[in-house]
Amino acid sequence: MNPYLRLLRPGNALIGWVGTVIGGYAVTGVSGLAGPGPLLVLVLAGLTTFLVTSAGNVLNDYRDREEDRINHPDRPLASGAISPAGGLRTLLFLFVLSPLPLLSAGVFSPGTPLLVGGFLPLGLWALAVGLLLSYEGLTKARGLSGNLTVAFLTGLVFLFGGAVVGRPILALPLLGMAMFATLSREIIKDMEDAGGDLSRRTLPQRRGMAAASAAARAAVGIALLLSPLPLVTFLPRGTPAFVIYLLFVAASDAVFVWSVLDLPQKLHAGQTRSKLAMVLALAAFLGAALR
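The chain above was modelled as a monomer; its predicted structure follows.
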């Protein structure tokens, strides 16, 4: 793969793109956004998410390039396949380019997103860029605050999709579920890396494994409490969307509980189970759109 393409980590960024589209359709339903226009708007907004996520990946590799020469020597900046100057140019290009698809969406489909959704989508783009910069410059080294930043950015993808179609309030439960589920996984990752994570003051390092385990379980608990909200707010009872969401979110909740049961033992297994739970949750969000 081309080193510049590897630098973007396109698989990771593609998840954000898909999440934006799913977030928009989940709060409206496919019947509420009939026709190619709304899909085009969400695809363009998703491209903005893709570019911002890619910029965050490049920024991470740019700042960590010295450490990555030991921990991840195959990465383009660490290996020398791309120079630091080339990485910085790529980073600036992505940040400058990232709002353009969102802005162009209103041209291709008049009325959305900047007229129906107001200027909130653009404000959320600016918030995401600011949080990425603050994460690398400040909160990443502080452990839990960095975990919270990553978790919020993950949930923000779904709020962004909801804002683009003018229904950000309905997307708040999706943001909350994704945020707290991701927070749990981030804490588990820090527990797994506690022995060699020397550049950050993580929760398990500062408070110990027992406290970190309790925090991961609490985050999962909050995500579980939020998971029924779409069933009582915008999903019509008895519809296929209601049933599909209920089945997948119940499965997701069960796997999330499973992911934190054996903490602080079986940390890698906990991460793997958390990933599976997130896939099931994404399927639940997609199911919510089938109305």
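The radius of gyration is 19 Å.
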